[in-house]
Design goal:
Elements (H helix, E strand, L loop, with lengths): L15 H7 L3 H8 L9 H5 L1 H4 L2 H8 L3 H11 L11 H6 L11 E4 L1 H5 L5 H9 L6 E6 L4 H9 L3 E8 L2 E7 L2
Parallel strand pairs: 1-2
Antiparallel strand pairs: 2-4, 3-4
Length: about 180
């Protein structure tokens, strides 16, 4: 049964069981991406393994890039990877002219994410070292929604854009 008003972010740290509890129709997407996920049809495995296995771990088991897994699941769930950034609030935060963007720090987190290293601490530390008004550029294979929320909560101006099929640039302007 599909739950309405789902407030679950699909991230590498999302547990497979939680994902399937909220989006049961994604089971077929997982199986299509990696046949090894057919095991999720077993009620015993579904209740045990799926509850403790993150999507990052599932990607490793399924031998698929975490970026592909996250982006395909988001697309199938109707949560477009960059849809959160198409509204007016995103447009207000982004500079009007591309040339205005001169990041003080650029961090491509793709390999770290693939290796299971969450970029949150490194980004938070990097942003804390910036002067007010300076920009930190984070490059990831999917929109880092939870990290964006944390940076906004700290008062920073944040905007993101898709620059390739599996490339997202997130700009964090220190407040």
């Amino acid at each position: 049964m599909y739950k309405e008003n789902i407030d679950l972010a699909i991230t590498p740290d999302t547990k497979v069981g939680e994902l399937l509890d909220n989006f049961p129709f994604l089971e077929s997407v997982l199986i299509e991406l990696a046949p090894v996920f057919t095991k999720l049809k077993s009620p015993v495995l579904r209740k045990t393994i799926a509850k403790v296995t993150s999507l990052r771990q599932a990607a490793t088991v399924g031998q698929i890039p975490i970026s592909k897994l996250i982006n395909e699941l988001r697309r199938a769930a109707g949560v477009d990877s960059d849809s959160d950034f198409e509204g007016e609030s995103w447009k207000l935060n982004a500079p009007k002219i591309e040339e205005e963007i001169n990041p003080s720090v650029v961090y491509d987190a793709a390999q770290d994410l693939e290796d299971g290293v969450h970029p949150g601490a490194k980004v938070a530390q990097g942003v804390s070292k910036l002067n007010s008004g300076e920009i930190y550029l984070l490059i990831t294979p999917f929109t880092p929604a939870p990290l964006i929320d944390k940076m906004k909560e700290k008062g920073h101006t944040v905007w993101s854009k898709k620059t390739g099929s599996s490339r997202f640039e997130t700009y964090i302007k220190k407040c």
